[in-house]
Amino acid sequence: MRTKIAFATSLLTAALSGSALAQDSDGDGANDPADAFPCDASKAGQVFAPAQGQHGMLQFEDEWPGSSDLDFGDVVVSYNYAAFTNTAGAVVSLRLTLNVLALGGTKTHGLALQLPLPTGAVQSVQRTIAGGSAQALQALGTESNFTVDLMSDLRTLFAGQADQINSIQGLSTQTAAAIQVDITFASPVTLAMSGAPYDLFIFETNTPGHEIHLPSFAGTSRMNTALFGTGVDASGGGRNFVDGSGLPYALHIPVLAPYPQEAVPVFGLFPDIVGFAASAGANNQDFYLSNVDSANAYTPAATPSFVSATPQADLSCLPVGAPCATLYNQGQTTSGIYLVDPDGNGGLTAFEIYCDMNLAGGGWTLVSNRRANTTNTEACAGNVYGFFTSGCGTPHNIGASDSYALDRAHRQAVIADANEVLIIQYLNGVPDYDDAYIMQLGTTGTDLFPNSAGVTDFAMSRVCTLDGTRCDSSGVYFKYSGDSWYHSSYCTRANWAASYAYRGNYGLCHDGWTGVSSSYFAGNRVGYNETKLWAHPNGAAAYQERVFYR
Question: Residues 310-327: pLDDT tens digits?
């Protein structure tokens, strides 16, 4: 896996706490990695129709119930729905984006929406036309189901132009501003997105009772029902606004598709619509894809757009960490190589890192994979200092026979917002969970491997086992001694290379306390004297160690 993503340092200062990446920051019952809105307890997911960033469309023939040319370019509208859901899958709010692509008739129409929900289910409706400010809309009080006029005159989107728009081949295409409708519900509702576009219909501006709906709907209470059964109308049997051939005067197409040129009957563009109409929609449901005669299509058509991008999750409540932690919180849960730019300001060009998304809660950025040998130096550096200063290797090669480290500049870039460090030892490439611990840094972004030739002690807020069941926060330190060895019994007393069996260049230690049983953090260490890659009597070449930040 290779993903490009940019981060800016110091976005937040919140510290990680325990297994923070598995936490539920907003308390809504969905852990942060599974929550599309981890800082908003009212929302947890998003559902789209027809799909995120994609548009479906409605094509209307406005002469119903009279006979007509059946060119279905009288009103052409694209739509996209985005539903925001809670942890139970109920819809909290709905965003509808509309684009009027054509007004090919000479009449003036409005556009309205009815949802299969009671009027009282809706708390508020706001309409925003691209380039303008939000305006409150009021539901029609005459309807039991929520109904709202979205636009009373669609021609206002084209500066009031009275003639035919985007239907006559050879004339220039005109583009209308996109419309965004945000509907907030009084409480979460059940609303299946498979029902989109719901009852999205047109009405004549001067005679609102003259409505045209999709065939599964019978019209609102203001509908002039006297129109049914007149002219060519053959409504009945639960199928409305259709003629004698079964052809509906409103077509729903779940993708962007062409529509006929002015005065070209729809079956001239979509021959299979004849079978679709005759079967009451049971057959030839893909009529807009099969046997399409593009010579009869109106082109070019306006391109649908969005007023604003899909709302992005507020991440301000989340703990900040190294880049892999941010990626994990954004839903990237596959371990592998990622391309990042953590300083976000061009100080460093984008570079590759390895993320472990499975170990100890996931979200760990690897800064070193150290393979020791019998002299405790590195395969790709002359000594420990050079290994952590100049770096070596590549994150693509981190096996038992490889050494890898970020150099100081790149390491400090990725750890700038980190709060935890995980150190784990491997034997012949197999992780030794008994030789592993997680430290919480006393100060965010602390580099535990500085430019130092002497002993450096860093106070840790606490140290825990990988499963978080055992922690200590009293007098915990991390010691780094460059290329020298130390014995870690007393961190602040600078015990150098004492004659003890277990010693190393850096590791966890405790100031003046070695009374903890050997099984507390490391099963084969003396007390609390945990060091890494010591001069092991069994041959250190078999051992390696990884250092991660989060």
Answer: 777 776 676 567 899 888
